[in-house]
Amino acid sequence: xxxxxxAAIATALGSGGISIxxxxxxxxxxxxxxxxxxxxxxxxxxxxxxxxxxxxxxxxGEEIIDEVMxxxxxxxxxYTREDVAEINCHGGITVTRKILxxxxxxxxxxxxxxxxxxxAFLNGRIDLSQAEAVCDIIxxxxxxxxxxxxxxxxxxxxxxxxxxxxxxLRDVAYIEAALDDPEHISLEGFSEELYxxxxxxxxxIKGLIKGSKSGKLIKEGIKTVILGKPNVGKxxxxxxxxxxxxxxxxxIAGTTRDTLxxxxxxxxxxxLNIIDTAGIRETEDTVEKIGVEKAMRIAKExxxxxxxxxxxxxxxxxxxxxxxxxxxxxxxxxxxxxDLEPKVTAEEIKKKSSHPIINTSFIENKGIExxxxxxxxxxxxxxxxxxxxxxxxxxxxxEAFTNAxxxxxxxxxxxxxxxxxxxxxxxxxxxYEELGRIIGENVGEDLIDMIFAEFCMGK
Amino acid sequence: MSYVYEEYDVAVxxxxxxxxxxxxxxxxxxxxxxxxxxxxxxxxxxxxxxNIGGTSKGHLVREIDALGGEMGKNIDxxxxxxxxxxxxxxxxxxxxxxxxxxKEYSDSMRKxxxxxxxxxxxxxxxxxxxxxxxxVTGVKTYAGSIYPCKAIIICSGTYLNARCIYGExxxxxxxxxxxxxVYLSESLRRLGIELFRFKTGTPARxxxxxxxxxxxxxxxxxxxxxxxxFTNKPEDIRKEQVSxxxxxxxxxxxxxxxxxxxxxxxxxxTITGTGTRYCPSIEDKVVKFADKDRHQVxxxxxxxxxxxxxxxxxxxxxxxxxxxxxxRSVPGLENAHIVRNAYAIEYDCINPAQLKPxxxxxxxxxxxxxxxxxxxxxxxxxAAQGLIAGINAAMKLLNREPVVLGRSQAYIGVLIDDLIxxxxxxxxxxxxxxxxxxxxxxQDNADLRLTKIGYQVGLIDEERYQAxxxxxxxxxxxxxxxxxxxxxxxxxxxxxxxxLNSAPLTTAxxxxxxxxxxxxxxxxxxxxxxxxxxxxxxxxxxxxINIKYEGYIARQLRQVEQHKKMENKKIPEELDYxxxxxxxxxxRQKLQKFRPASIGQASRISGVSPADxxxxxxxxxxxNASQKDALKQxxx
Lengths: 459, 636
Hints:
The complex is a heterodimer.
Chain A: E1 6-9, E2 19-24, H1 28-35, E3 36-37, E4 52-60, E5 63-73, E6 84-89, H2 93-105, E7 109-110, H3 115-122, H4 131-152, H5 155-180, H6 190-213, H7 217-220, E8 222-228, H8 234-242, E9 260-265, E10 271-276, H9 287-300, E11 304-310, H10 317-325, E12 331-336, H11 346-350, E13 357-359, H12 368-380, H13 386-416, H14 424-439, H15 446-454
Parallel strand pairs in A: 1-7, 8-10, 8-11, 11-12, 12-13
Antiparallel strand pairs in A: 1-2, 2-6, 3-4, 4-5, 5-6, 9-10
Helix pairs in contact in A: 3-4, 4-13, 5-6, 5-14, 5-15, 6-13, 9-10, 13-14
Chain B: E1 3-4, E2 10-13, H1 17-28, E3 33-37, E4 51-53, H2 57-66, H3 71-78, E5 79-85, E6 95-100, H4 102-114, E7 119-123, E8 126-132, E9 135-141, E10 145-148, E11 151-154, E12 163-166, E13 169-171, H5 184-190, E14 195-207, E15 217-219, H6 234-237, E16 244-248, H7 251-259, H8 265-268, H9 282-288, E17 296-301, E18 308-315, H10 320-328, E19 338-340, E20 343-350, E21 367-369, H11 379-397, H12 411-421, H13 446-457, H14 462-484, E22 486-487, H15 491-499, E23 509-510, H16 511-516, H17 537-548, H18 550-568, H19 585-594, H20 599-603, H21 610-634
Parallel strand pairs in B: 1-10, 2-3, 2-11, 3-7, 11-21
Antiparallel strand pairs in B: 4-6, 5-6, 8-9, 9-10, 12-13, 12-20, 14-18, 14-19, 14-20, 15-16, 16-17, 17-18, 22-23
Helix pairs in contact in B: 1-11, 2-11, 2-13, 3-4, 7-10, 13-14, 14-17
């Protein structure tokens, strides 16, 4: 089996204050040396004793990524019986991912599903009686991984990957056909053509990487806007969700001046990207118009609108127009300040809007759990572990795309440095294989089949 | 009435390219060997194309030679034209091909067989394989004589239940009208061996005197001859070469074929066997690639002894009258006289998935198979298997370790692994694209890769072995020297670079770095390398290649290293896959069917996923441990 060094995020994402990036394999400690910097000394962790923990920073060149504790454990007394390093970082999703990416860039490979356990077993760490259980884990994890990989690709992406693979295979088949039957098929001028193809492949794959890294509701969290008239408790809601006093909360209308954006991972692993708008303000003149327009402009981009109403004041025209404007959006209405004497009831609002309504009291922390539950139901049909799998899958996609891109760049290098054509297929096929990992297709007899299907060759 | 004739160690059935190598290997390893042929005239017969080698096949021949086989030596003796193909491409795909004088090739090989001690040639048709206790005990001829033996190598080529077909005409014969072997298939079936029915074909032969060569392009042999055998020097085998000729089919040819396509046994359903995609008949090409208005046709001499010319690119099974029209529509062949018709041939072969990597049948001890009977096509593929089967039959009887070449060691390794692992649905032809480590498996380094193995087996003598060790050492030392020789940007160097259209140096570098430049090589730098000692050409070639492609070679070596552990992890023969619950159903069925010898082989079976391999490894570990426990308990 491969003995290369593997890495993965070992903790459930976002569920705790600390995330762990685990590295296992021969190069675990040398990789750590490249990215760890102690606070004041120049100590290298590869020189430190086994089973010790060290305070310091993870750095990418000069840039400090995070303040961390790193545990180093030498083989064989580790989970996998290989050298293991674990980076305990505080960061949320972004920082953890950055650290993992850095580790991968330094030569580790993203662990296959269940691979730490598999290594532990193969290296004799896990009792033999558990063999069957280990088999089940490997299988189950692989099944889920592939299912997620496909589930996460949008229809178009799947098609793009398939097409690009087919094009790459056709290039290879052409070269191979010419190598195997030089008397019938010539490679004259093919390098130039291939160069153009490469440009195209690289451009498309770069686009796919960008797509994987950003902009997707399901991967990146739910873009959420909290709307409401001044002083209904928008910032308080945000603070409750964030559990940190980041937005300023006061009783004076209009305290929140600028839009704040905050990533929040709810207890059930759902990520919300919350845009906290400045309160919709009423002034003497132009008033409602400006307010409503502004709110709607921001809300237009959102995946979810949380509209906060003050139950202690009656509905006005402003509320009515916003309610009617958000009819077609995914929205949740919060009837806040249920601790005060109600001037408006859920029944009354139901007549004007079909969106779900929750009675809340931010001061008493009431209704928040219901809100989180409702969001989960709206977006994930109750599948709690979904988000984490998606994150990991996403990371896998990026790795495969990046490897494919690298392989294609090597083909260009080969062309540039005047290497003969028979060297191109090596890297072209690597790119083909990497892209195949994403859609769960292996290289079988594809190439031979393509050669014979496309080219008339042979005696 | 059966009777026992004489006892042998090894019996080889069939004296084609596989049989010859198998018998020679076994006899040279001092085993008492007998080789049977249906006709003494068919020893090392070339019933189809009159050449040896070609892309990737040339590699096989070089490898056979490095292991101590005969094919390379025999073609060096009997070639009439030699070319290195793909010279404009990288060294990994340079491929040697030689036109043979067919008769001389066959006669020369027969002479070698006749003069090898421990080897007996016998004309007889084997009708039955005798087995007792799942072990071979002997062979029985159609006439009833029994030859008891300890190992049998079946190399029956395309003769089993062969039928030759063109149009509505069917002959129940083997190639070239030779009698087919009609009883052996039945014997194999009775032993529980699964058979396939494959098909191949050959074009017509035309009388040279009726061809107008002025309408064709001449193709001459290379000035610089490279021998197939590492034991030969170019100057020793130089000779006058003959030419081949190139012409093309015409729209008229295609029209004739289309009009008569319903008379083709392929399209009418008379032929049921599966043909190889690499050697399509001309009617196949015309139908499948309808947009091509012409196809190449090579006219190749069958030898110096005859006027017959082989019409490469136009194999066919159309009726005789259509063939005449069709060939005569090709420029230069307007007045051609056909000497032999083109025909398709159908034959029985075994499902090679039933074989171990040693080419021994999994279910019967001592029964080996090699050549087209295993579903391959081509003389070189056959010879390669023959050699390995011969070696392994001998190793078995001598109680020595079998020889299994890896995919990273030799094309022969790729060939056998593919045959026994991939579900071959057509005659298997070697191709460079099948070798994932082809940068390592070059024709120029076959001696460096395999001579040691040939020596250990006992087919390579001490002198040849020492010569290879010496070559290896010289290559290593010269590369080291070039990497350590610093070259300054002096005027002599700059001038030389300028004269070679290479960019001037801006800073000091090494000779090795200069050799890496695509426009430069070792030989060109002689004037700035005063410490150079004179080295033989083959050493210089290796130095150039190893320096120029260093990065690529290193990468492939790394890949090999990564897969090595999987290749080395053996799977016990008796393993029952149906009891491994973690495997997916498809994987379980496939593994049960193929019974791979190693984890590496298992991973290449289609339908077995990486997750299945993980599960298998986990299971094996458990299994091996429990076997050990059981052993401990049984020993007091």
